[in-house]
Amino acid sequence: MDHRDRPEGLAHCVLCDRPQRTEFPDYCAGCGGPVVLPPAPVALPATTESTGAWRYAGRLPISQETAWLSMGEGQTPLVSATSTRAWCATERLRYKLDHLNPSGSFKDRATAVGIAQAITQGAPAVVCASSGNAAGSTAAYAARAGLPSVVLVPEAVPPGKAAVAQAHGATVLRVRGDYSNSFQVARELAARLGWLNLTTTFVNPVAVSGLRSAGYELAEQLSEVPDWIVVPIGSGPLVHGIVTAYQELRAAGMHTELPRILGVQAHGCAPIVDAFDRDVERVTPWPTVSTRISAISDPLRGYPSDGTYTLRLVRETRGAMVAVRDAEAEEAAEALARDEGLLIESGAAANLAAVRTARDRGWIHQDELVVCMLTGHGIKTLAAAGRQEAPLVANTDDVIGQLPAHTTKAPEDLNDRVKR
Ligand SMILES: [Zn+2]
């Protein structure tokens, strides 16, 4: 079936349940709450001959007519952790490699569906506010669709992330202040010019529904429901996507459990963790952003109900929230790159630090199955890491002189390496 066959208005506000239209997406006109599409009624099988989001065309609001937009978003590998298991003090640790999406972040799951919406509705252009990853994603898919795109980023955006969007031909503008300022301008611009808003807070329920594919894939890749799924959180649409997917599968009788969500925020911008720790229902905006972990620094100013809804979802899964300090996230990113071969931005590597904290607090047990969503590639933020210039050599003797001592010894028994 095709979701376009559904009567209009089935999208609804998660706070007051009022039905909402989706052509000009915005927050609930009644209460300002986030708007989402309802769960798909049955867990239809994936369409194996289609690519990316269109594998789930029966469950997502897209039709095969726009399948040409796909760049293979989603369908990312799920791999076992090796050396970093010890770092996190957990035995059964898996990584979902969402940094391998076409534009280097999980945002492509939502953007593909959002750009299909823009094409189907005949939107003249698209706009998004972004801390950096959605910028590159929107610019890339808009380029493929032949649509103009404008991306609004905070003034402190990592230059590599702005450069990706510029390379795809987007108009990239830095808006003074933090992410919430960019968010507000994107919302006003979309309303004034009739452009489709692809900002990946909860502002566009059609685009956000694309994030369900992460949950569908995990259910296909694992023979059991993971005990925990660890998710970096700005406002939380990925939590909604994963939880909704598992709810649909549970409703279809495919399993009985929901995975518990461990939500991760930066210590210097943690409005949802704050409400979790204080054991209150309502999330309030974060006053002053103070973190280098730009990918998850969303103060929720003007749309705190996004956080309230996300916290409600985390609690429904019997999950938890953890704040991670900049240095911990950067140490985790180093460990992933050096010991695991995975180049991941700090906002996603923060997951590992959160797992370690949750282990310390006794929330996660050593033998539980833990999946970390590695949501963003590290290559876009690498230039900012201040690395030394590579030494210049002229010949082989120079090279030998530069090598670490242990690499020039006789090789160890190869079998020891293979068995690991
Ligand atoms: Zn409402």
TrEMBL record:
Any one Gene Ontology BP term: isoleucine biosynthetic process
Keyword DNA repair (UniProt): no
Cofactor dependency: pyridoxal 5'-phosphate
Domain Tryptophan synthase beta chain-like PALP: 70-376
Enzyme class: lyase
Keyword tags: Lyase, Pyridoxal phosphate
Residues recorded with modification N6-(pyridoxal phosphate)lysine: 107
InterPro entries xrefs: Ser/Thr_Dehydratase (IPR050147), Thr_synthase-like (IPR004450), TrpB-like_PALP (IPR001926), TrpB-like_PALP_sf (IPR036052)
Any one GO molecular function term: L-serine ammonia-lyase activity
Keyword match Transferase: no
Superkingdom of source: Bacteria
EC number: 4.2.3.1
Family that this chain belongs to: Belongs to the threonine synthase family.
PANTHER family in the cross-refs: L-THREONINE DEHYDRATASE CATABOLIC TDCB, THREONINE DEHYDRATASE, MITOCHONDRIAL-RELATED
Protein name as it appears in the record: Threonine synthase
Organism: Tamaricihabitans halophyticus
